[in-house]
Specification:
By secondary structure, the protein is of the alpha/beta class. Helix content is about 35%, strand content about 25%. Keywords: Oxidoreductase.
């Protein structure tokens, strides 16, 4: 297989990224039984081929996907990778075994989630940190997009995050409010959930 090292690049504000990245979710979650060794081998092979943009989230697993990515990238020069992860969706299992998914983008949760993600990934900083999904009652805590983005901006100032993004369920008004607080490097959309916002952008 040809290397992706010379593949086209895209510029997202101050960040240059490969045109093709690897979404790591499927290596641990949602698509049947996971094989850790195979997942690690897949990520490492992608990196060898020049696919150095890796995308994960703390909700994938939950938590196990970031842990697997951390194992896969151990020993890879940090400046050769662009690691993206997300916070804002909290997944727990109810006593009856059914999933309980809630949204939380409060400042306190943002700071705590970032600290935990850094530990699982084995990194000193995250290249792109996303608000995975904006929350609103009854499926989440009541908070404003401004609260989430302000907390993320503080993480940038602390050196724990390089760039910030938003993902899914945000409106064009949310994006304008967010960008007024701190430049939004990336918008990750998910099908019809964000198609209206994508058209406006």
């Amino acid at each position: 297989m040809a290397s992706l090292a010379d593949a086209p690049k895209r510029r997202l504000g101050a960040l240059e990224v490969p045109a093709m990245g690897l979404g790591c979710m499927g290596t641990t979650a949602f698509y049947g039984p996971a094989d850790e060794a195979e997942g690690i081998a897949t990520i490492r092979r992608a990196i060898e081929l020049g696919c150095t943009l890796l995308d994960t989230s703390d909700v994938f697993g939950p938590f196990t996907n970031e842990e697997l990515v951390g194992k896969a990238i151990e020993g890879v020069p940090r400046d050769k990778l662009i690691v993206c992860t997300k916070f804002g969706i909290m997944l727990r299992m109810r006593p009856d075994g059914t999933p309980d998914m809630r949204m939380c983008g409060t400042a306190a949760h943002c700071k705590a989630a970032c600290k935990s993600s850094l530990k699982r990934l084995g990194l000193d900083y995250i290249d792109v940190y996303y608000l995975h999904r904006k929350s609103s009652p009854p499926a989440g805590t009541q908070h404003s997009i401004e609260e989430s983005i302000t907390a993320m901006k503080e993480l940038v100032q602390e050196g724990k995050v390089k760039h910030i993004g938003v993902s899914e369920s945000v409106t064009t008004d949310d994006l304008r409010k967010a960008h007024a607080i701190h430049p939004i490097t990336a918008f990750s959309w998910n099908g019809a959930c964000s198609r209206g916002t994508q058209r406006v952008i």
